[in-house]
Design a protein that fits this description.
Bound molecules: zinc ion
CATH architecture: Beta Complex
Shape: globular
Largest sheet: 8 strands, mixed
CATH topology: Metal Binding Protein, Guanine Nucleotide Exchange Factor, Chain A
Strand content: 25-35%
Radius of gyration: 14 Å
Oligomer: single chain
Number of helices: 2
Distance between the termini: 21 Å
Order of helices and strands: EEEHEEEEEEHEE
Number of strands: 11
CATH class: Mainly Beta
Helix content: under 10%
Number of domains: 1
Length: about 150
């Protein structure tokens, strides 16, 4: 598969990765809703060291997580686009927002799991074929199981 490439809205930050994601996740949490000003985020989970970032990013640290562990949102300081998230929820991993990917990137990675469905927009149906969790998946369930 060709490497995935994307950028923020203004183009100051570009990202690429050349790896198969562990899983593609829709998150309906209220933090994702606020940070994207949309109903949910869709992210691929990859190894952080597989993500190449070209350009300066700023980091917002949020403690408003279900786990109580901090999460970090990495965004473009010029246009504010959120490019990827990291967190103590999964050290060494990055959750890359597929909405920033170019070409077929947004379509290529089909979500298999939806999390934090307890705050999902009421008018929004779950996607066909996804496993839906009201909060997070059980800790025993690794991305490989999903
Ligand atoms: Zn930008
Ligand atoms: Zn979220």
């Amino acid at each position: 598969m060709a490497p995935a490439a994307g950028s923020c809205s203004c183009g100051a930050v570009k990202i690429t990765f050349d790896t198969t994601p562990e899983v593609t996740v829709i998150c309906h949490c209220t933090q994702c809703q606020k940070m994207t000003s949309g109903p949910f985020t869709t992210s691929v989970i990859i190894e952080l060291d597989k993500l190449k970032v070209d350009g300066e990013t700023k980091t917002y640290t949020s403690m408003k997580t279900g786990s109580g562990l901090p999460s970090y949102s990495h965004f473009c300081p010029v246009c504010g686009t959120m490019l990827y998230g990291t967190g103590d929820w999964s050290p060494g991993k990055a959750a890359v927002r597929t909405g920033v990917l170019d070409g077929d990137g947004l379509s290529r990675y089909v979500p298999s799991v939806e999390i934090n469905a307890e705050s999902k927009a009421k008018w929004l149906a779950s996607q066909e074929g996804t496993m839906v969790f009201q909060k997070k998946p059980p800790a025993a369930l690794t991305p490989r199981d999903i």
